[in-house]
Amino acid sequence: MKSAITLAQVPEASAGPFVFHQALPDSFALAASLGFDAVELFLPGPHFIDVAKIKSMAAAHTLDIAAVGTGAGMVQHGLSLTDGDPAKRAEALDFVLSMIDFGGQLGAPAILGSMQGKWGGEISQEQSLAWLTEALQACNERAGRHGVNFIYEPLNRYETNQFNHLAPAAQYLASHNLDHTVLLADLFHMNIEELDLGEAIRAAGAKVGHVHFADSNRQAIGFGHTEMSSVITALRETNYDGYLSAEIFPLPSPETAAAQTIKAFQELTS
Ligand code: LER
Ligand code: MN
């Protein structure tokens, strides 16, 4: 397993669960100095910075790019793949595809989190799932062309009503032949929704392709009360070799949250 830490450059997400918000050269340097293997990027969009600049910062600090988020489409533009307005849905899909292209040039997968939207009101669950499936098929195909995965993230009930649990999401991906799409096991969302974190990981098995490494209160692992040894055992049993990426609040400070994360990562994975 490999360590990663989140770097955000989206002003609307300044209070969100991201560790470093400094300019990217400083954030890359901080991540490298603490010994992380990779960074996960939360950017306003694909035109925020040249791919070549990211590549050169990553090379200079021997950091990989673990993944790129797409949530700016929601927090900055109010976009969702399951919006009732077809023009908004198309705009949302263009945004996610453009982030898949951006990440693809870095060998990094894009993540679908908040942009999956919700059903309700005039939109039935069946209709919403049909739109989500259509979008996931397009994202799966685009990621496959780049030779990377696409990452779908079940969220807790307060953020989506599409998929809140890993096991049904894994079955859904398999039954729709979404073979380049993997699941994000965000331990914060799972702490709210899953009966047993280790069992949920085992049930999703090889479909788990990324982990958001967050304690029960969305702080660094060790600053909350999630029992982590059974989580790590389950990840080992399913031969998980991806990232444990800290998508957490920068509390009590970004530096302390990051230092605690790498300490917990080393203790749990050594
Ligand atoms: C995104 O990774 C996530 O976990 C969501 O809670 C963002 O709001
Ligand atoms: Mn997450």
What does this entry look like structurally?
This protein has 270 residues and is of the alpha/beta class. It has a single domain, classed as Alpha-Beta Barrel (TIM Barrel). The protein is 43% helix and 14% strand. The chain has 10 helices and 8 strands. Strands 1-2-3-4-5-6-7-8 form an 8-stranded parallel beta barrel, surrounded by 6 helices. Helix 6 runs parallel beside helix 8. The model has no long low-confidence stretch (mean pLDDT 98). The protein binds L-Erythrulose (LER) and manganese (II) ion.
What is the strand and helix layout of this fold?
Blueprint: E1 2-8, H1 24-34, E2 38-42, H2 51-60, E3 64-69, H3 72-75, H4 86-104, E4 110-112, H5 125-146, E5 150-152, H6 166-175, E6 181-186, H7 187-193, H8 197-204, E7 208-212, H9 229-237, E8 243-246, H10 254-269
Parallel strand pairs: 1-2, 1-8, 2-3, 3-4, 4-5, 5-6, 6-7, 7-8
The structure holds L-Erythrulose and manganese (II) ion.
Quick tags:
270 residues; alpha/beta; TIM Barrel; 10 helices; 14% strand; globular; binds manganese (II) ion
Q: Could you write a compact summary of the structure shown?
A:
With 270 residues, this protein is α/β, with parallel strands linked by helices. The chain is built from ten helices and eight strands.
